[in-house]
Each structure stands twice: as C-alpha cells, then as structure tokens.
C-alpha cells in the first residue's frame, strides 16, 4: 500500500500566514525503504508512470516514498502551492483514461499539480480534465486508493476525491472545505459524522442555547443529531480511526482558533503540538481501524504509526520534517535546492537534536 493514512490541516498564524501540517501514518519503516526529500527544477521534463511527460512549469520540492522520485506524498512549489495525498479506501481509478481526459497515476497526481499549477484555483480547473489511473506495481497494477488536499500561499484550500463508483477515476472538487482531511470515508460523510458529534458532545453543548457549530477555513458545520455517523458516542473520540481523527482535529483546531494565537516564529512548535492528538504511536494497531462491524467491533485493524510529521511554509517555500522517534527537524527551502537538476536530499535521523544543556553557574 503506497497511499498513507494521515491527518492534514491548515493553520493560520496571528500575522495571517497559512501553514500546512500533515502526519504520514503507515506500517513498516518507510525510511529503511528509501523515503527522502527530492527537488525538481523548473523546466525539467519528467517521464511519469502512465507514459505521460510533464515539463515542469514550476520548481518543486517534496517527500517521496516509492520506487520513483515522482511518487510524491506531499510537497511545495515555487509559487507557494502545497499539496499531499492521503489514503481513501473508497477511492477509484482506471487502467487507462477515457477519451477527452488526461490520465495521471494516483501516486503522481501531487507531482502533476505542483508541477503545473500556481494556486488552488488552478488545481480545481486542472482536476476537471484529469482521470486518476491505477498504480503500477511489480506484478500488474493496484487501485489508487487516494484523495488529495492542496493549499496555496493565500491559504485557499481545495480537496479532490475520485470516490464515485459510477465515475471511476474522475475527480470531485471541494472548494468549500474545512482545510482539514484524514482518510475514509469520503469527504461528505466526514462532514456528516462531524455534524452528529457536534450535536451529541456534552462538553461542546454545555450551557449552549442554539445548535453547536464550528467554522474552519471559512466553512461552517452545524450540529445535526440525525446525520449519518460513524462515531460510537458523543464523548471526545480517542481512537486512530480516520473519522475519529477528523472530529478530533476539527474540534481542537476550532478551540485553538485555527492557530491564530500562534506567532510565526512559534508556529512549528505550537502547530506540531496541536497535531499531537492525531500522532499515532508505534503500536499493534488495535485502535487503528476502518469502521465498526455489525457486532460493534473494530473492523480492518492493522499496525500503523506516524512515520513523519511535516509542516510546509508556503511563504518560504520550505518544508520542515521530523521522522518518528526523532526530535530534530530537517528544514529545506526550495530556494536552496539546485536550479539545474533533480536532487535527492536526506532527512536527519538523529534521535536527539536542538537540546540546550545548561549547567549551574558559580556565584
């Protein structure tokens, strides 16, 4: 499985600057399998998996996990457009694109958008002419179980999903969104689940006269006790199921005013702290599941943990990345990458870093 479970959220500083955080949750050890940062210069011609050539209109930088450098998990380009892919098990794809559409392999859609788009509006327009293709494997192909989130330097966000079985591989564009994503179920169902939770949370409804609501990224979601839902109760959800992480991050982001109390120089520290409730520890996966079965037991449990946490600063065109089990952040700005050729950059794996050690002073 190449698409990762994760949580992605937009935060905005007290100065109005947007930042994009995401966790990458998956089993195994992606670092032993070769995960690294990669930068591509503007004008580079990339041969993509689906046989399409992409001449980059924008230089870009991102995290790659897979056999090809073009398989980006997330990244940023020289226009300050940021984006990433997340697992969506209802996601659809096709072997070849139908007439009138351009086929892009699911694992390379982030690369395609960052290489050819300057803003969220460009992404939305480009999505209308694309069809998501299956992912090539050593033996045959696999469905591209992914959906995508992009944010530009103004903070405008767009979410893309190809989750309609009647339109396989064709993307639905959500320009009105919370600036938040996790994984399954598809986005409309995530919003319904949040509406149900808002109606049943005793904490959020304490002393409230009208219906509870949250507003994130300019979108308001209002409580609806009759909405379809996945949550098992109105108490604050603690599992690592994607719909529980969605509710948890939405509520915590709202309670923290989407980061607007954080200064730019503290955003990395405070924003990554806000992400802690969705960072999954290395465990046996008992709380990481897809849904509850008919007997109210967790279904689809599997070992998974947060392989890395990343923050993108679209103003600096920079990535900050911290692998699991590491306290030091690796920062790389696109402006410090080669403007002549593709370049691989290693991520620091030192377990300890940035620690100030003090001693008592005489007198």
What are the main properties of this structure?
about 375 residues, alpha+beta, Penicillin V Acylase, Chain A, eight-stranded antiparallel beta sheet, six-stranded antiparallel beta sheet, 5 helices
Describe the structure.
With 363 residues, the chain is α+β, with helices and mostly antiparallel strands. It has helices spanning 109-116, 120-127, 187-200, 242-255, 267-274, and strands at 5-12, 18-26, 36-40, 45-47, 53-55, 60-64, 72-77, 82-87, 102-105, 130-133, 135-136, 141-142, 146-151, 157-161, 172-174, 180-181, 213-216, 219-222, 291-292, 298-299, 305-313, 318-323, 330-333, 343-345. The longest helix has 14 residues, at 187-200. The protein is globular, with a radius of gyration of 20 Å. The mean pLDDT is 93.
In terms of topology, how is this protein built?
Blueprint lengths: L4 E8 L5 E9 L9 E5 L4 E3 L5 E3 L4 E5 L7 E6 L4 E6 L14 E4 L3 H8 L3 H8 L2 E4 L1 E2 L4 E2 L3 E6 L5 E5 L10 E3 L5 E2 L5 H14 L12 E4 L2 E4 L19 H14 L11 H8 L16 E2 L5 E2 L5 E9 L4 E6 L6 E4 L9 E3 L18
Parallel strand pairs: 9-10
Antiparallel strand pairs: 1-2, 1-16, 2-21, 3-6, 3-24, 4-5, 6-7, 7-8, 8-13, 11-12, 13-14, 14-15, 17-18, 19-20, 21-22, 22-23
């Amino acid at each position: 499985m190449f698409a990762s479970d994760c949580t992605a959220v937009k935060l905005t500083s007290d100065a109005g600057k947007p930042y994009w955080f995401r966790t990458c949750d998956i089993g195994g050890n992606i670092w032993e399998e070769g995960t690294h940062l990669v930068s591509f210069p503007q004008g580079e011609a990339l041969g993509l998996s689906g046989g399409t050539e992409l001449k980059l209109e924008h230089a870009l930088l991102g995290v790659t996990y897979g056999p090809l450098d073009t398989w980006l998990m997330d990244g940023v380009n020289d226009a300050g457009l940021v984006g990433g892919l997340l697992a969506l098990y209802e996601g659809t794809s096709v072997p070849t694109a139908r007439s009138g559409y351009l086929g892009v392999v699911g694992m390379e859609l982030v690369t395609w958008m960052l290489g050819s788009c300057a803003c969220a509006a460009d992404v939305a327009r480009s999505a209308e002419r694309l069809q998501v293709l299956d992912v090539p494997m050593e033996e045959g192909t696999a469905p591209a179980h992914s959906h995508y989130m992009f944010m530009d330097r103004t903070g405008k966000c767009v979410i893309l999903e190809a989750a309609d079985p009647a339109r396989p591989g064709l993307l639905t564009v959500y320009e009105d969104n919370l600036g938040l994503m996790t994984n399954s179920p598809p986005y409309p169902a995530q919003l319904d689940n949040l509406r149900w939770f808002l109606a049943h949370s005793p904490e959020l409804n304490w002393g409230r006269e009208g219906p509870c609501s949250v507003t994130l990224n300019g979108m308001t979601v209002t409580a609806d006790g009759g909405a379809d839902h996945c949550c098992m109760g109105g108490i604050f959800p603690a599992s690592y199921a994607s719909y529980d992480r969605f509710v948890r991050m939405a509520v915590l982001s709202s309670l923290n005013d989407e980061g607007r109390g954080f200064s730019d120089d503290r955003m990395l520290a405070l924003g990554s702290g806000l992400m802690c409730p969705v960072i999954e520890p290395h465990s046996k996966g008992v709380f990481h599941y897809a849904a509850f079965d008919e007997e109210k037991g967790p279904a689809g449990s599997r070992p998974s943990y947060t392989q890395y946490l990343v923050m993108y600063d679209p103003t600096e065109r920079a990535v900050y990345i911290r692998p699991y089990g590491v306290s030091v952040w690796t920062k790389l700005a696109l402006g410090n990458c080669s403007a002549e050729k593709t370049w691989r950059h290693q991520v620091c794996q030192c377990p300890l870093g940035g620690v100030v050690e003090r001693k008592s002073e005489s007198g």
